[in-house]
Amino acid sequence: MTPLQMFAEVVIGGLMTGLMYSLVALGFVLIYKASTAFNFAQGAMVFFGAATVVGFAELGVPFWFSVLLAVGVMILLGVVTERVVMRPLVGQHEITLFMATIGLAFVVEGLAQLLWGVEVRRMDLGIPDVPIEWILTNTGLLITQFDFFAATVAAVLVGTLAVVFSRTKVGRGLRAVADDHGAALATGIPLQRIWMMVWAVAGIIALVAGMLWASRAGVQFALVFLALKALPVLIIGGFTSVPGVIVAGLLVGVAERMFEVYVGSPILGGGTEAWFPFIFAILFLLVRPEGLFGEKIIRRV
Amino acid sequence: MNDRRGGNVVLQVENISLAFGGVKALTDVSFDVREGEIRAIIGPNGAGKSSMLNVINGVYHPQQGRITLRGEVRSRMDTHRAAEQGIARTFQNIALFKGMSVLDNVMTGRNLKIRSSFLLQALWWGPAQREEVEQRRKAEEVIEFLGIQHVRKTPVARLPYGLQKRVELARALAAEPQILLLDEPMAGMNVEEKQDMCRFILNANQEFGTTIVLIEHDMGVVMDISDRVVVLDYGRKIGDGTPDVVRNDQTVIDAYLGVAH
Amino acid sequence: MFYRETGNFRASYAQDARIFPLALDRVAILVLLALAVLVVPSFASNWLLMAILIPWLILSLAAIGQNIITGYTGQLSIGSAGFMAVGAFACFNFMLRIDGMPFLLAVLLAGLTTALVGVAFGLPSLRVRGLYLAVATLAAQFFIVWTLENVGWFTNYDPAGVMTAQPMVILGYHFASPAEKYLLVLAIVALLALAAKNMARSNIGRSWMAVRDMDVAAEVVGFRLMRTKLMAFAISSFYCGVAGALFAFAYLGTVEPSAFSILLSFQTLFMVIIGGLATILGSFLGAGFILLLPIFLAIFFDFVTGGVFDKALLSAFEVLLFGAFIIFFLIVEPHGLARLWQVAKERLRLWPFPH
Questions:
Q1: Which residues of B touch A95 (CB under 8 A)?
Q2: Strands B38-42 and B87-89
């Protein structure tokens, strides 16, 4: 394999991982946009979603019905979260909300393990992880059918969200809520309903991300740490920008992979993915504190 | 009314322009403040009065213009430099430290007077302890001056609005400032509270010789206690002089009555 | 009736500024300390000392460090375990590589080293706020642990990566038995807790709280934002570093990176949330709560299921319960156990009257 081919593979591998990060980060952005709360529990929800699907499937429920049930469960989880955790804390310090979601993350993790057990399980979506022949023969690159599937799903999801945000009434309402709760209320926008919708959608995104990720890596507790990786993505992309988060996710995925392959493994002994995205984000922050597309906030005193 | 109109110029702003994105808050504003006087800044809502104070104090940085403070010319003020130079202020929306008590808030006003290192503070020993007690004494003087002894240990978030305003004034006075910037100190107060606040401001000015720059909407108060007045409208200066002069200026009257211009 | 404020006159500001203005409080704390020093070592079992009291004291110290940066200064830090690791390894290396290094000096140097590392990672906070800072501390956590695991120099090129901590010897006296370790840890923690309390009620403490409550106003009053935040980071890291050194030397007996995982960072954060943000007492109460809850849960489960339960299920339930407590405290009593204690004391002051 030529160095160029190797490079291309590293980049593509990084893009795939980055896509996952973007998906998880997307859930964060949604919730942040609507309620300026940073939902630390997003990662736990990813794990919960995947575990629920597999859990139902193991009980004998047909696979796609399991998925449907899981969607229902995630929506329920989102709604309950909004009601029980977020609503009582409305108006509090940002950090308080964040800490509440850390608590929430623990609750969701614990719940997932209590309900569905702690062993690692396999998730089979029925899409084989085999290389796409014509790409392999023409360019020598290894892109599997699954990669393609995941990329498509993610793209469709992101595209749908982007359209919903900018074109529909619901999307406009969401943006209004994100800007100013009081004003949104004053114009008759149903705040509570929008919040519940947002949390439900975030739950669904988490489910999708969980299923995609778990197909590769299995349904295991480590999925929870995916959330932590999404943080640098949010930093770099800006907390409020959907396109920013996509770009940032891909960027982080590629950068992380390239660093590990070219520097981490040969020189530093490997395992640099544990910390690289975070250091990358810090360095990025030093140069551009509001991220790629984030808004510069002017505070009036 | 006092006669301290003849002091030296202690603060001067020249050609200050300030914009936020496309919004022009201040355009080419110039005026001076003399030592020991009470200078009022008035104008309709949105005229840029708070922005002007923020520029003086270093919270906002103007795109153009200069600030001369006691002879030192700068194009922008640093917030803590302003504090070191003896400028203290209160805010329109109370900027108290909500997590602390009244006493602690007032003590923060004394912070620039405290010299001991954190290590000595950690030991609560010798010079650090004496200094803390001494600063407490000074803070208590201000607390007494403003009549808030009875709530000194109360967390400020629990106090009614009027008392919070007084605590903010206490914090500002605790710094023994040379120039005091007050942003609508009487907003939201009833007649009695306003009279009290007026009395405090006048006392501060007369007893301590503090120069005061005051934003206020209540014309009665402005006319009564200020020595000179600056009038702003849509970010520009449209009047400058003693209260009588300004009161009779047609441009000022038009601005307040909303005559199109 | 017994616990009251009447008769306690403060005749000077110095008296009013005391940590325990009420005479009865002062007596109580002295009695408590006397018990802790004189009675406990003789009567407490080794298990109680090694498994409960010593880790409680050490974790309380780490919680104080966490409280300084998160409770007092309002900066969210999720890297305390990483800083504890720095302290542990620094102490180990100072004692290993410098002949005749006294233990206490090594601990002090370890704390100072950690302070420097804390400042380095705290520098990003100067340009960014709130949640962004959490990422910087996460970076610290992961990077530090990875470095200690992968850069052999820190572990003295030990193949297993786990070193035995050197014995704690002060002025020739070897602190080896649980009771001796307990007294040493008690002394260090008590002194540092006192120092923290002193700082909290002095100007530096006010500078932290001002930055937490409204940084613009803090600057207007003359506090320097950068200096205040960096001081908070440095001092907080110092406390975590000392706690880490004690954790390795007086509790675990080994120096290994895996003891300082991100889970421990979350635990210290939970300690200060549940115990009470911006209180020294809260750090102790929170640490105790976090430490004791798993034990009580295990006992409870044992009792309910008659000794037959799944370990993994228990730990899952623990995780769930911790999260639930966090949410509960944040909603119901954001000032944590310390506030509940305060409320209880106030009721006691009025007892037996209702109000």
A1: none
A2: unpaired
* Chains touching A (3+ CB pairs < 8 Å): B, C
Interface of B with C (CB under 8 A): 57-59, 79-80, 82-84, 88-89, 91, 95-100, 104, 107-109, 111-112, 114, 116, 118, 121-124, 128-129, 132-133, 135-137, 140, 171, 175
* Structural contact between residues C281 and C336, judged by C-beta atoms closer than 8 angstroms: no
Smallest CA–CA distance, residue A91 to chain B, in Å, is 15
Residues sharing a CB contact under 8 Å with residue B178, sequence separation 6 or more, in sequence order: B10, B85, B86, B87, B210, B211
Question: What pLDDT, in 10s, does the model give residues B24-45?
Answer: 999 999 999 999 999 999 988 8
ipTM of the complex: 0.88
**CB atoms B91 and A298 under 8 Å:** no
Strand bridging mode B228-233 / B236-241: antiparallel
Instruction: Detail the DSSP E strand segments found in C137-200.
Output: 163-164, 169-170, 173-174
| Closest residue in chain A to residue B52, using alpha carbons only | A301
Q: What is the separation, in whole angstroms, between the first and last Cα of chain B?
A: 34
Residue C133 in contact with residue A38, Cβ under 8 Å?
no
Nearest CA in chain C to B128: C202
Contacts of A53 (CB under 8 A, 6+ apart): A63, A66, A67, A70, A123, A207, A210, A211
DSSP code at position B25? E
Strand partners, B38: B212
How far does Cα A146 stand from its chain's mean position?
Answer: 18
Q: Which residues have a Cβ under 8 Å from the Cβ of C344 and sit 6 or more positions away?
A: none
CB contact at 8 A, B183 and A300: no
- Are A298 and B20 within 8 A, CB to CB? yes
| Structural domains in chain B, sorted by start | 1-86+177-261 (3.40.50.300), 98-175 (no CATH)
Distance from CA of B75 to the nearest CA of C (A): 18
Cross-chain Cβ contact B59/A301 below 8 Å: yes
- The answer, for C6 touching chain B at a CB cutoff of 8 Å, is no
Q: How far is B245 from chain A (nearest CA, A)?
A: 31
Residues A195, A103: contact at Cβ < 8 Å? no
Size of chain A in residues: 301
Question: Is C142 in Cβ contact with A278 (below 8 Å)?
Answer: yes
Range of the domain at C51: 44-259
Tell me which residue in A85, A95, A281 faces C130 most closely, judged by beta carbons.
A95
Torsions phi, psi for A270 (to 5 deg): 85, 170
Domain ranges of chain A: 18-227
pLDDT score at B1: 42
Kindly report the pTM of this predicted structure.
0.88
* Closest C-alpha among C263, C223, C285 to residue C64: C285
Q: What share of chain B is helix, strand, coil (3-state, %, to 5)?
A: 40, 25, 35
Number of structural domains in chain C:
1
C-alpha dihedral sign at A254, A256, A257, A258: positive
Provide the residue count of chain B.
Answer: 261
Q: What is the pLDDT of residues B82-140, one digit of tens each?
A: 999 999 999 988 999 998 999 999 999 999 998 888 888 888 888 888 899 999 999 99
Nearest-by-CA chain B residue for C278: B99
Amino acid at C54: I
| Amino acid (1-letter code) at residue C113 | T
Q: Is B22 on the interface with A (CB under 8 A)?
A: no
Determine the Cα–Cα distance for residues A67 and A47; give it in Å rounded to an integer. Answer: 14
- Given an 8 Å threshold on Cβ–Cβ distance, is C12 in contact with B133? yes
Q: What is the pLDDT of residues C301-333, one digit of tens each?
A: 778 777 666 777 788 888 889 899 989 988 888
Q: Name C51's Cβ contacts closer than 8 Å, sequence gap at least 6.
A: none
Measured distance CA(B156)–CA(A67) in Å, rounded? 52
| Tokens describing residue A295 | 């808004």
**What is the C-alpha separation between C41 and C195, in angstroms, rounded?**
25
